[in-house]
Design brief:
The chain is 62% helix and 16% strand. The chain has 4 helices and 6 strands. The strands form 2 sheets. A 3-stranded antiparallel β-sheet has the order 1-4-5. The longest helix is centred in the middle third of the chain and has 78 residues.
C-alpha cells in the first residue's frame, strides 16, 4: 500500500495505533507492577487506618451502651425504691383496715363494706406482686422472719413458728417487711 492509501484508510491508521499501544504496554509492564504494588501498600495502610477508626468507634459505642444500661438500671431501682416506699405506707393502711374489721367483727358490727375495701386493697397489692410471707407452722427463716418472742413448747419442733405477731411481705422476690413471729423452743427440765 502506498502512503496516500494509508492516509485515506482510517482502519489502517487505527490498526497501527493499536499495535503501537501494545508495544508501549509490553515495554511498561514492569512499571505497572511497581505502581500496583505501591498502590496496594497505600490501600493496605488506608484500610488499617479505617479499621483502627472502626474499632475505636465500636469501643465508644459499647461504652455508651453500657452507660445507658447502667443509667436504665439505676432509674428502675430508684422508681422501685419509691414504689416500695409507697406500697409500704399502703400496707400500713391495709393492715389498719384488717385490724378495724377484726375489732368490729368482735363487737358484732356488720363488716361487709370493710371486706369489700380490703378485697380491693389486696387486689392492688397483687398487681404490684406483693405477697404475704407464710409463717405459722413453718420453720423459722432469718431471711424472712424476725423473732420477737420465744415460747417453750414440746408440741412443736424447736425453731417452728407458733404465732405470727405482725405479717411480713415480699415484693419482686425480696423482703419488703419482715414477719414478726413467736417461735418454739424446747422446755428445759431441771
Amino acid at each position: 500500500m502506498s502512503e496516500n492509501e494509508k492516509d485515506d484508510n482510517p482502519l489502517i491508521e487505527s490498526q497501527e495505533n493499536v499495535e503501537q499501544n501494545d508495544n508501549n504496554f509490553n515495554n511498561n509492564e514492569d512499571d505497572a507492577s511497581f505502581i500496583d504494588e505501591s498502590k496496594v501498600m497505600v490501600d493496605k495502610q488506608q484500610m488499617d487506618e479505617v479499621n483502627d477508626l472502626l474499632e475505636k468507634e465500636k469501643q465508644k459505642s459499647l461504652r455508651l451502651l453500657a452507660d445507658y444500661q447502667n443509667l436504665e438500671k439505676q432509674t428502675v431501682n430508684r422508681i422501685n425504691a419509691r414504689t416500695d416506699k409507697i406500697i409500704l405506707d399502703f400496707l400500713t393502711v391495709y393492715e389498719d383496715f384488717i385490724r378495724a374489721k377484726n375489732v368490729y367483727e368482735k363487737d358484732g358490727i356488720n363488716v361487709d363494706g370493710l371486706n369489700i375495701i380490703i378485697k380491693s386493697m389486696k387486689s392492688i397489692l397483687g398487681n404490684y406482686d406483693v405477697k404475704p410471707i407464710e409463717t405459722e407452722g413453718k420453720k423459722f427463716d432469718p431471711k424472712l422472719h424476725e423473732v420477737v418472742q420465744e415460747t417453750e413448747d414440746d408440741n412443736h419442733e424447736e425453731g417452728t413458728i407458733v404465732k405470727e405477731i405482725a405479717k411480713g411481705y415480699i415484693i419482686r422476690n425480696k423482703v419488703m417487711k419482715y414477719s414478726k413471729v413467736c417461735v418454739s423452743k424446747k422446755i428445759i427440765k431441771k
